[in-house]
Amino acid sequence: MAEEKHVHHMLEPAEDPLPVPILRDDGTREPEETLEKQAAGYAAEEDLENQRPDLHHVRSHVSTHDSPVIHQNEHHEHGDEIYDRFSPRRKIAMVCVLSFCSFLAPISSTSILAAAPEVVASFDTTGAIFNISNAMYMIFMGLSPLFWGPIAQTYGRKWPLVIAAVTFTAFSAGSAAAPTLPAYFVFRMLTAFQGTTFLSVGATVIGDIYRPVERGTAYGWFLSGTLIGPALGPFVGGIIVTYTSWRDIFWLQTALAAASSIAVVFLVPETIHHARKADLAGLPRKEQARKLWSWINPWRVIVLFRYPNLLIAGVASSSLVWNMYSLLTPIRYVLNPRFGLTTPLQSGLFYVAPGCGYLVGTFFGGRWADHVVKKYIKKRGHRVPEDRLRSCIVAMGVVLPACMIIYGWSIEKEVGGIPLPVIVMFIQGVAQLFCFPSLNTYCLDVSQKRSSEVVAGNYVIRYVFAAAGSAACLPVIERIGVGWFSTISAAFLVAAAVATWFTAEYGGAWREAIDKGKSEEQ
């Protein structure tokens, strides 16, 4: 009966407050009075768990993962019916909209790079100050999930996405029309703060609508926007700044953001399984305020890093983002003198290589992650969230470091001509899509109940490293050279891969030990 109560709690619907009938072992239904008593106790249980999350893998969604796989699909688990609320076509439409939205904030982070000298001239500043504006953009991308993650877990996914889309549009227009350098800084930071909502909340929507064994594929398509954007941005920016003003980069961004606002309003429904705001009904105002603050407090996101498996997943994602931005940010400064390029458009073409790699990787990376999960389900007889991490270890620990070392030293020693860096940048793009779906989807698998906050924490740490990479890459390259800088980035990736392997092997035991300590304290 205790297991039935747990399953009932995890299946509590977002919009229908009535208890869901539970079948006893003999086929009869629980009396409605019993169900009402159970429902009355759920709010109290939720309050006890607010400050310290339970990440035991049986709560990664509504099933117990140690149960045998049953029903018509060999990978179907008890409780998976909650993912059948939307038709496959509706899910695909939602993923397409969210992927387009997730394209906007990252492309804004790099599209202006191709116009760096022009922006510097317009505001009569220096390249170092311009790079600080890009680093601040990344920092605010990292701060945003601390706010929007808990909000989305409390009020649902729909309206945070709508608010973010509308305000992102307004702040993009402000960036385009900025009359002074301080105004440019402010609008850029506000744009970053709102744009990251698409990434963190959009990722949570994927976890709301897809079964664990399907999420990797869906996540691969969603991530295509977040990764193609940074690579395509400088190419598009290079074309625009070659023929017109750098301000038109932001006007184009404004138009795209307006289209995303319309798409989110009409094509993305509410997907959350249970919004916490429903638990406030009938409580005194003072108690409502207390609970609400405990739910939306940004500390809820930070405290999740007490789980070493989540911290390692965040650092591993950060190594990938550090690698991506430290590669893309200095291209115009590094490759232009190496190959004698003279226009923004010429250097912008180099960004096409990793962008094509990200696009190709979209077709394979997520599917590979799901394949590995299914393979280990057959081997074990049940699903363990950490098995998903095994799908990214080779790409992160071998392929990406090798690409970075070849890229850096071929530029440093002037060997291989143009084809060699282009080829390794393409391979690196493909390899990144074999890593991100595994790491991001693992965060959803390990804590469906607090998925929005777990994903938010992952984005916080990764964009802190992205800001560091964007700000540090050019000064460090000027001091030690692109070869040694690429070697440092490769070492970071290898260390992250080793830590990810340890998480795949021992992450389940880590979670159980912390959850046991939590239970003893309570």
What is the count of β-strands? 0
The coarse silhouette is globular
Question: Spans of 5+ residues with little confidence (pLDDT < 50)?
Answer: 1-73
The major β-sheet equals:
none
User: How far do the termini sit from each other?
Assistant: 22 Å
* SSE-based structural type: mainly alpha
Q: Rg to the nearest angstrom? A: 23 Å
SS field, number of helical segments: 21
The overall pLDDT, averaged over residues, is 80
Amount of helix: over 70%
**Which range does the strand content fall in?**
under 5%
SSE topology string: HHHHHHHHHHHHHHHHHHHHH
Describe the protein.
The protein is an all-alpha fold. The chain is 73% helix and 0% strand. The chain is built from 21 helices and no strands. The chain has helices at 2-10, 32-48, 88-111, 116-122, 127-155, 158-177, 181-209, 212-243, 247-267, 285-296, 299-302, 308-328, 331-339, 344-348, 352-362, 365-380, 393-412, 419-432, 436-446, 451-480, 482-521. Helix 19 packs antiparallel against helix 20 (451-480). The protein is globular. The two termini are 22 Å apart.
Short description:
The chain is mainly α.
Give the SSE map.
Blueprint: H1 2-10, H2 32-48, H3 88-111, H4 116-122, H5 127-155, H6 158-177, H7 181-209, H8 212-243, H9 247-267, H10 285-296, H11 299-302, H12 308-328, H13 331-339, H14 344-348, H15 352-362, H16 365-380, H17 393-412, H18 419-432, H19 436-446, H20 451-480, H21 482-521
Helix pairs in contact: 3-7, 3-8, 3-9, 5-7, 5-20, 6-7, 6-9, 7-8, 7-20, 8-15, 8-16, 8-19, 12-19, 12-20, 12-21, 15-18, 17-18, 17-21, 19-20, 20-21
